[in-house]
Specification:
Blueprint: E1 7-8, E2 11-13, E3 19-20, H1 31-35, H2 44-48, E4 52-53, E5 56-57, H3 64-67, H4 71-74, H5 85-92, H6 95-106, H7 118-121, H8 133-145, H9 149-157, H10 159-166, H11 175-179, H12 190-197, H13 225-270
Antiparallel strand pairs: 1-2, 2-3, 4-5
């Protein structure tokens, strides 16, 4: 990638004048930010190979159609395994890789969006290294939430998310603690969910896996029958609780209001 910056007040601007967010600069790389990133000491050729393409030197100013493509879909992420072999192998056995294979075979994009590749979760040019666990948890929640907003919302409303993100408690569970960083395991099956819970709760029994972490009702068709029943129960109880609380508050506010009116009436009556 060419090492020059076109930074403006709202982010970056590409060769066709379209604004690009600073966190996702497309074909243009801010070398100041890159030099302080985790890959700052890596040469461009180490990831991209010889800076030539189709027999033409880089940059090829005639390849505008090529440059209009999505950078994450053009780059061959097999190159990542040269330095991150274990992570790449885990990715290949995970749900994201399965979704990517299915997408390529059928040409159909899933409901959660385009199947992610390495660059969708990691910024090769700008990701920092040596971050604390709490910093990683916050960044990870936002990253995962970009494709799974309902799960992010429910996670942040849960004890795990509140303590990990809001209170920065580094012992609290993050997305990868439950689903894995690169395997991205689905926890629809009770056995897989229990195994995940036992990483932090070694004495957890089978019923422990019945606890619902993500209580979103969206995309119910992709959930197991047990999860559907549990969600319906949770939301029914939530509705009953809400109605009860509203009725209790209405009763006490009405009682207080009537009591105040009575006192006003008594004062007016005794001063006749």
């Amino acid at each position: 990638m060419v090492g020059f910056s076109l930074q403006v007040s709202i982010g970056f601007s590409n060769a066709w004048g379209k604004a690009v967010p600073a966190s996702n600069s497309g074909w243009f790389v801010d070398m100041n930010r890159f030099s302080s990133s985790a890959h700052g000491a890596v040469k461009c050729e180490d990831c991209h190979g010889p800076m030539t393409g189709m027999g033409k030197p880089h940059p090829d100013t005639t390849a505008k159609d090529f440059l209009k493509g999505e950078t994450k879909r053009v780059f061959d992420y097999q190159n990542c395994q040269k330095c991150h072999k274990n992570s790449y192998e885990r990715f290949l056995s995970g749900e994201h890789a399965k979704a990517l294979t299915k997408e390529k075979e059928t040409g159909v994009i899933s409901k959660t969006g385009i199947a992610p590749v390495c660059g969708d979760c990691h910024s090769a040019h700008y990701s920092k290294s040596h971050l604390s666990r709490s910093q990683i948890n916050k960044a990870m929640t936002t990253t995962c939430g970009s494709c799974h907003p309902d799960q992010m919302k429910s996670y942040l409303a849960n004890y795990h998310g509140k303590t990990a993100v809001n209170l920065e408690f580094d012992k609290s569970a993050s997305c990868t603690d439950c689903h894995g960083a690169h395997h991205c395991t689905s926890l629809k099956e009770k056995g897989a969910a229990l195994k995940s819970c036992q990483r932090c709760h070694p004495d957890a029994q089978p019923q422990f896996a019945d606890i619902i972490i993500h209580d979103s009702k969206t995309d119910l068709d992709n959930k197991s029958d047990t999860k559907k029943t549990g969600l319906q129960t949770v939301h029914t109880l939530s509705l009953i609780s809400l109605i009860f609380i509203v009725m209790v508050l209405a009763f006490f506010y009405s009682h207080s209001c009537l009591l105040m009116l009575r006192k006003i009436h008594e004062k007016l009556r005794t001063h006749k």
